[in-house]
Amino acid sequence: MKTNPTFQRRDVLRTLSYGAVCAGMCGAGPMRWLLADIHAGETAVYRMSFDEFPQLKNSYGSVRLNVAGIPSASNQIVVTRMPGNQFYAVSAKCTHRGVAVDPFKKGKGLYCRAHGSQFDVDGRVVRGPARSALKSYDTSYDGSGSVSVAFPNLGYSVATSVIQTGAGDRVALSFKTISGMKYTVMVRDKLGGGDAEAVQFATTPDGPLSASRFTGNGKTTTLYLQPVGDAGFIQVVRE
Ligand code: FES
Does the C-beta of 106 come closer than 6 Å to ligand 1? Predict the structure, then answer.
C-alpha cells in the first residue's frame, strides 16, 4: 500500500506579540524587544486536499498515510470517506499487536493481515483477536475540496526569551522538534491576519540571520531572530 508523506500540514506552534520598547530614557537607550505570549496551540490540525488525496473524492475511498509525530509507536492513520460526506480518521495501529491495518474496503472494513482482526470505519472492533478499538481522531469536512484531521497533544510549547548577543539583542525561540518536520518563522503585523512575512533566523546566538527553514531532528532546538518593524506577531510554523 502506498503511503503519502506529503500530507499538507501547516500549524502554528506559538504566537507571540512583540514590541520595541525603550530601555532607560526613551529615545536615548537601546531598543529592547518586549514579548508576550498570545496563544499556545495544543491541537494540530492537518488539512488533506482531495487533489493530493484523490481516494477521498468518492464514498468508500480510503487512504493510509504517515503523520510525523502523532503520539503512537505506529505513526500511520487511515482516513475514509463514507456516504453523506462522513469522514473518519483512525490510527492504523492494530490494537492486537500493532501491525498497520489496510485502508477501508467495503465488506471488509479495516483489515489487519497479521492475524485477521477487522475494524469498522470508525475503529470499532468487528472481529478479533483485537479486543479494543483503533484510536480515532476528529475530522472536519470543508464542504468541497478537503478534510481536516485534528491531533490533540501534538502541539509543543515554545520557550522564548530576549538575549543579548555579540550581534545585538535577539529573540530566542526554543522548542522540541519532530524529526523530519520543517519549521519556519513568520512575522505578521496583525494577529490572525495581515501580511505574513517569513523571517530569516540564526541557529546560534550570534550567527548570521540567514536560515529560512529548519528541519527537525527530534531534539529541542533554539532559533534566534531579530523581528522586523517596531511591533507585530511572531509565529513559529510547522509545515
Ligand atoms: S496484529 Fe492485527 S490482528 Fe494481530
Answer: no
143 and 230 co-located in one domain? no
**Strand ranges, E, within 122-192:** 125-127, 136-141, 146-151, 159-165, 168-176, 182-190
- pLDDT per residue as tens digits for the range 14-63: 555 555 443 333 343 444 444 443 333 456 667 777 887 788 899 999 98
Q: Whose CA is nearest to atom 3 of ligand 1?
A: 115
Q: Is 93 in the pocket of ligand 1 (CB under 6 A)?
A: no
Domain count, the chain: 2
Name the residue type at position 16.
Answer: L
Ligand 1 closest atom vs CA 129: 3
Give the residue from 151, 182, 200 where a domain finishes.
151
pLDDT at 210: 92
Tell me, yes or no, whether 26 lies in a domain: yes
Distance from C-alpha of 133 to C-alpha of 58, rounded to nearest angstrom: 25
Pocket test residue of 91, 96, 118 for ligand 1, highest count of atoms within 8 A of CB: 96
Q: Is residue 106 part of a domain?
A: yes
| Threshold 0.70, pTM exceeds | no
Which is the closest atom of ligand 1 to the Cα of 115?
A: 3
Do residues 70 and 108 both lie within one domain? yes
CA distance 92 to 220: 28
**Ligand 1 geometric centre to CA of 95 (Å):** 7
Shared domain for 95 and 144, answered yes or no, is yes
Distance CA 122, CA 125 (A): 9
Q: Which domain holds residue 175?
A: 11-41+156-238
